């Protein structure tokens, strides 16, 4: 796996040189997010509970009994951050994953050296459409930046999508969407569960519940908070 990751990294760097992208924020040619626009995103963090949007710097407020102990979100889904995520998810710009992982890296605190990174599994139909799992790509790049291993501990067992349903339906769907991969020993492990966008937190809660049932301590991290549109 290490050799494959190195080859993929070399290919991506060559593509960035011969076919550079405009910055999602300012349009400057060279990278998906230039250093100035990264700085702007990081210094406008989302400072609310990811489950109810109540102002809260710890990511989760006292009104909720969540199956994770800490929550981190880079910023609100808007402007340059939204464009960079959209390019990764909807425009097959795989290079965007590196820039977005760098936002994770610069926003997250020091993580335990024994921690595993667990990507939230993407719906299979979306993987087929894109040709890749964008959250798995983010996990791979963050793994390289933080020298932490990726553990694909979760499987997606349903095909329901959430972008057109309300809060209650999201929680109902999420509760049956995930399962633990068989044969893993996770008792006592610390994991960082990551996703690209959080809206109601339903998927993160359901996935984290599976991990805590297996004996894990779970932290969660997302790139962007996107309020539910009613």
What composes the largest sheet? 4 strands, parallel
Number of helices: 8
State the end-to-end CA separation: 44 Å
CATH architect. name: 3-Layer(aba) Sandwich
Percent range of helical residues: 25-40%
| Computed structural class | alpha/beta
| Average residue-wise pLDDT | 88
Indicate the radius of gyration in whole angstroms.
Answer: 17 Å
Number of strands: 6
In total, the number of domains comes to 1
Strand content: 15-25%
Overall morphology: globular
Order of helices and strands: HHEHHEHHEHEEHE
Here the CATH topology equals: Rossmann fold
- Kindly report the spatial arrangement of strands forming the biggest sheet: 1-6-5-2
Poorly predicted sequence stretches spanning 5 or more consecutive residues: 1-9
In CATH, what is the class? Alpha Beta
Notes on the structure:
The chain has helices at 2-18, 35-42, 79-90, 96-107, 124-130, 134-146, 167-175, 202-213, and strands at 70-76, 116-119, 154-156, 178-180, 190-198, 217-225. Mean pLDDT is 88; it is low at 1-9. It has 230 residues and is of the alpha/beta class. The longest helix has 17 residues, at 2-18. The relative contact order is 0.16. It has a four-stranded parallel sheet, with helices on both faces. The protein has a two-stranded antiparallel ribbon with strand order 3-4. It has one domain: Rossmann fold.
What layout of secondary structure does this protein have?
Blueprint: H1 2-18, H2 35-42, E1 70-76, H3 79-90, H4 96-107, E2 116-119, H5 124-130, H6 134-146, E3 154-156, H7 167-175, E4 178-180, E5 190-198, H8 202-213, E6 217-225
Parallel strand pairs: 1-6, 2-5, 5-6
Antiparallel strand pairs: 3-4
Helix pairs in contact: 3-4, 4-6, 7-8
């Amino acid at each position: 796996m290490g050799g494959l990751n190195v080859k993929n990294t070399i290919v991506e760097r060559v593509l960035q040189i011969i076919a550079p992208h405009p910055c999602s924020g300012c349009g400057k040619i060279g990278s998906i997010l230039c250093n100035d626009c990264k700085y702007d995103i990081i210094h406008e963090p989302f400072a609310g509970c990811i489950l109810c949007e109540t102002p809260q710097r710890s990511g989760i407020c006292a009104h909720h009994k969540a199956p994770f102990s800490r929550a981190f979100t880079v910023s609100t889904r808007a402007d340059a951050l939204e464009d960079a995520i959209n390019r990764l998810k909807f425009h097959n710009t795989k290079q965007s994953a590196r820039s977005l992982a760098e936002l994770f890296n610069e926003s997250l605190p020091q993580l335990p050296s024994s921690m595993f990174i667990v990507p939230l599994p993407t719906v299979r139909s979306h993987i087929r459409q894109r040709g890749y799992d964008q959250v798995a790509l983010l996990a791979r790049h963050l793994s390289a930046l933080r020298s932490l291993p990726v553990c694909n501990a979760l499987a997606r067992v349903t095909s329901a999508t959430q972008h057109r349903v309300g809060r209650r339906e999201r929680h109902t769907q999420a509760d049956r969407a995930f399962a633990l991969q068989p044969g893993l020993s996770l008792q006592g492990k610390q994991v960082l569960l990551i996703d690209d966008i959080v809206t109601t937190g339903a998927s993160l809660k359901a996935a984290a519940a599976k991990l805590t049932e297996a004996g894990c301590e779970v932290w969660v991290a997302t790139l962007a908070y996107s309020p539910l549109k009613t």
